[in-house]
Specification:
Blueprint lengths: L10 H19 L4 E2 L1 H8 L3 H9 L11 E2 H11 L6 E6 L3 H8 L2 H4 L2 E7 L9 E2 L2 E4 L4 H8 L3 E4 L3 H13 L4 E4 L12 E4 L2 H15 L14
Parallel strand pairs: 3-4, 3-7, 4-6, 7-8, 8-9
Antiparallel strand pairs: 1-2, 5-6
Helix pairs in contact: 1-4, 2-3
Length: 225
């Protein structure tokens, strides 16, 4: 089976691959060895045609009339997503959010180890959170290049996010998860994933007020509750 990597893979496809992998891991834990795309879709609320289309970017995995071999497809997706190795990750920002990320065990269980954390607050430098010593950002270029770290997480205030991103890129990082509520201006070859938690909650609020009938569609007037 050969992976078809010449075509540009849509970001949404890559995101769905991680969802498919989670589903397969659940199926394997239940002892399911073979399953069809239709059964996967019904079980997890997915689109079977979309699943087949997404997988087709990387080759042929299923057997007509039989379905997918769960452990085999799980292994292929881990390889495609680069999860057959451990990734060292650098974190910038040791505030409440950053400290929570350091204490979260889920990352390491999935192959992502936050092994370095940086913060420019002099009272934090030298202290440890979850066994990881907080370093001065001035040491970032040397330390990240020494460890070969290519993935970074930004958990700083919005005002410090751009500077943090530039320091990460100058230190050899080419993939960034930005948790700060700020847009970053970086070279096009740097992959950035923005996750603004407040913005996500505002989206939920938008849907919630309509579900509860608190907003009159087509006008600017709020209903009396």
């Amino acid at each position: 089976m050969s992976h078809q990597t010449s075509a540009k893979i849509p970001d949404k496809t890559v995101t769905r691959l991680s969802i498919y992998l989670r589903c397969l891991e659940e199926l394997e834990s239940e002892g399911v060895s073979t399953i069809s795309s239709r059964e996967v879709a019904q079980r997890f609320g997915l689109n079977s045609a979309q699943l087949r289309k997404d997988l087709a970017y990387f080759g042929q995995f299923g057997v007509r009339g039989v379905g997918y071999h769960v452990p085999s497809l799980e292994g292929h997706l881990k390889e495609i997503l680069g999860l057959n190795q451990e990734w060292k990750v650098a974190l910038v920002g040791a505030g409440n959010l950053g400290s929570a990320l350091l204490k979260y065990k889920g990352f390491s269980q999935k192959g992502f180890k936050i092994c370095m954390v940086f913060d420019n607050h002099p009272m934090k430098v030298g202290k440890s959170v979850a066994g990881v010593e907080i370093k001065d950002p001035k040491k970032m270029p040397y330390l990240l290049r020494r460890e070969g770290i290519r993935i970074g997480i930004i958990a700083t205030p919005a005002s410090a996010a751009q500077e943090a991103a530039e320091k990460l890129v100058a230190s050899g990082v080419s993939s960034i998860l930005n948790l700060a509520p700020a847009q970053l201006s970086l070279p096009p070859e740097v992959k950035v994933q923005h996750v603004d938690l407040a913005a996500v909650l505002k989206t939920l609020s938008f849907h919630q007020v309509r579900q509860e009938g608190k907003y009159q569609e087509g006008s600017r007037a709020w209903k009396q509750v």
